[in-house]
């Protein structure tokens, strides 16, 4: 190290390092942590300069969001028609629409304001489960316009609803044989597209809201949203490692820019490329991983098994859906899971697998058990993402196999009431997103927002896991609550472990990156029910300060 030493002083520094859990000063040099402790102790690192920016604030390790999507940047270029209020990149509030009539009125208003008659109307955030008596379909959208293509992306990102004009434009008819193209009892199209293969029928219109055309702008907004929420490292679980070298170079330049506010972990998504030879793909991922930089990490694999619980496309064990809906969809045929995982596992690549339903969890765990027996790997860090209905016995098996969980704790607040009333019923709603069970079984776990499915905020994820309170105020699964200490560990060291970055981030201790989240209050000192209201001052990334936007 050759640069200058800076000593940050703080009202309190929470380190998540058990040997030295708190301090009042942290010394950094060249973007790395030298030490943390008392001010006098930090002076021992040689010539220094003070930074008193945080003397009245609380510093914690940089929060790690290990499952989010670049859509958190893309979507803000389109109108929002979701149920809950959302905070935009500049800190302003985008109001939610809490009745079906409000949604249709907003869409009609948007249509009337558009000058080009051929321009598609694309909106995002709609959630039909809040309006189950009026499930959005092609008839409703044809009331908005019979001539302008309309694409309404659901908040789950697993479904969309389109109108007749878009069907005609893209030659989508009832004779098209694609899994997820929904048809009613009469065999006619309902306008609903379920899961990736059906969504792709919408062509460039789906791509516009999915990945967007303004790539640099989308990634910048994504980073700003993460920074505003206090995150310093995020894993983008939808875009996938660019297959084209020029696109990868562009991504590296963008994220490696000193002004870009977060580190990105970018897994490879075989689903994006319809891979036939996963062994060849694994070798390609290894080569790409060699291009990792300090701020862009490559080399993980993201896979999908099922869909969305609130969209009724997740795969559930018996007794299935509480309201009698048929079981969900397999995004990947379960019989392919073993061979697919085997290819990446034996090449030393960790797989992060989307499993919302417990039946999907069974399929993935069976695959891990088989490939581990063939090719033992003690530190594989395979991780189940969402893990919403994972049972005690499944968590016990995960512990035995060394599988981590990335748990969607926010679901308790945003959809807990609907899960209780509609999707899985009271019993299973009380054990959804079971962080306490994961802890008791000895499973490493983290939590995530799945942004933009829910707003990117690990502070909110902590609050949700500690309180397990729904939007109506109901407490679901009181015995599945975890402590603030365990929740903070989950979104720092727990998340870093799943990304194989725990040797670099996740705690404030010597030799790690100088990544910090700065808060106005300590989550240990406020009433637990008020944790989500803690204001994020901003972040420090490699020693550089990034204040948050508050509107």
**Alpha carbon gap, first and last residue:** 38 Å
What structural class is derived from the secondary structure elements? alpha/beta
Q: DSSP helix count?
A: 18
Mean pLDDT: 95
| E-strand count | 23
CATH superfamily of the largest domain: Metal-dependent hydrolases
Integer tally of domains: 3
What is the level-2 CATH architecture name of the largest domain?
Alpha-Beta Barrel
Q: Label the overall shape.
A: globular
The stretches of 5 or more residues where confidence is low (pLDDT under 50) are: none
CATH topology of the largest domain: TIM Barrel
Q: How helix-rich are the residues, as a percent range?
A: 25-40%
Gyration radius, in Å = 23 Å
Measured by DSSP, the beta-strand proportion falls in 15-25%
Summarize the structure.
This protein is of the alpha/beta class and 551 residues long. The protein has 18 helices and 23 strands. It folds into 3 domains: 1-56 and 507-551, Urease, subunit C, domain 1 (Roll), CATH 2.30.40.10; 65-70 and 213-506, Alpha-Beta Barrel (TIM Barrel), CATH 3.20.20; 79-210, Diaminopimelate Epimerase, Chain A, domain 1.
Can you give a write-up of this model?
With 551 residues, the chain is of the alpha/beta class. It is built from 18 helices and 23 strands. The strands form four sheets. Strands 1, 2, 3, 4, 5, 21, 22 and 23 form an eight-stranded mixed β-sheet that branches. An eight-stranded parallel β-sheet has the order 6-14-15-16-17-18-19-20. Strands 9-10-11-13-12 form a five-stranded mixed β-sheet, with helices on both faces. A hairpin with a 5-residue loop joins strand 7 and strand 8. Helix 12 (358-374) packs parallel to helix 13. The two termini are 38 Å apart. The model has no long low-confidence stretch (mean pLDDT 95).
């Amino acid at each position: 190290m050759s640069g200058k030493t800076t000593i940050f002083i703080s009202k309190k520094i929470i380190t998540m390092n058990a040997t030295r859990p708190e301090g009042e000063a942290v010394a950094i040099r060249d973007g790395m942590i030298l030490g943390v402790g008392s001010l006098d102790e930090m002076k021992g690192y040689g010539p220094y300069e003070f930074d008193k920016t945080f003397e009245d604030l609380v510093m914690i390790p940089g929060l790690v969001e290990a499952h989010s999507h670049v859509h958190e940047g893309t979507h803000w270029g389109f109108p929002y028609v979701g149920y809950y209020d959302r905070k935009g990149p500049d800190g302003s509030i985008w109001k939610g629409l809490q009745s079906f009539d409000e949604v249709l009125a907003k869409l009609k208003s948007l249509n009337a304001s558009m000058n080009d008659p051929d321009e598609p109307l694309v909106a995002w955030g709609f959630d039909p489960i809040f309006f189950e008596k009026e499930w959005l379909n092609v008839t409703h959208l044809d009331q908005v316009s019979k001539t302008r293509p309309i694409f309404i992306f659901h908040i789950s990102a697993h479904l969309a609803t389109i109108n007749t004009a878009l069907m005609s434009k893209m030659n989508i008819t009832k004779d098209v044989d694609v899994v997820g193209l929904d048809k009613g009892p009469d065999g006619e199209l309902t306008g609903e597209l379920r899961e990736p293969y059906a969504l792709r029928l919408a062509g460039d219109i789906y791509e516009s809201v999915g990945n967007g055309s303004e790539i640099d702008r989308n990634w910048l907004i994504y980073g700003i949203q993460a920074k505003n929420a206090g995150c310093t490292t995020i894993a983008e679980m939808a875009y996938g490692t660019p297959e084209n070298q020029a696109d990868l170079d562009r991504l590296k330049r963008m994220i490696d820019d000193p002004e870009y506010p977060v580190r990105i972990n970018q897994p490879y998504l075989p689903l994006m490329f319809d891979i036939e030879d996963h062994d060849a793909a694994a070798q390609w991922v290894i080569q790409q991983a060699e291009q990792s930089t300090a701020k862009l990490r490559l080399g993980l694999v993201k896979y999908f098994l099922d869909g969305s619980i609130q969209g009724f496309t997740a795969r559930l064990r018996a007794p299935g859906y509480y309201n009698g809906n048929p079981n969900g969809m397999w995004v990947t045929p379960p019989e392919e899971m073993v061979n697919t995982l085997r290819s990446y596992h034996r090449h030393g690549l960790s797989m992060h697998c989307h499993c919302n339903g417990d039946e999907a969890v069974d399929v993935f765990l069976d695959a891990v058990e088989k490939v581990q027996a063939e090719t033992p790997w003690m530190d594989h860090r395979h991780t189940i993402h969402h893990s919403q209905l994972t049972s005690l016995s499944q968590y016990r098996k995960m512990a035995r196999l060394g599988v981590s969980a990335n748990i969607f704790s926010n679901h308790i607040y945003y959809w807990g009431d609907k899960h209780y009333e509609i999707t899985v019923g009271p019993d299973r709603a009380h054990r959804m997103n079971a962080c306490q069970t994961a802890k008791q079984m000895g499973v490493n776990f983290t939590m995530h927002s799945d942004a933009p499915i829910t707003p990117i905020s690990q502070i909110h994820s902590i609050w949700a896991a500690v309180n397990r309170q729904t939007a109506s105020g109901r407490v679901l699964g009181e015995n599945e609550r975890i402590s603030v200490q365990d929740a903070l560990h989950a979104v720092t060291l727990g998340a870093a472990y799943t990304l194989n970055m725990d040797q670099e981030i996740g705690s404030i201790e010597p030799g790690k990156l100088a990544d910090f989240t700065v808060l106005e209050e300590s989550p240990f000192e406020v009433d637990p029910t008020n944790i989500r209201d803690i204001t994020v001052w901003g972040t420090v990334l490699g020693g550089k300060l990034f204040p948050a936007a508050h509107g």
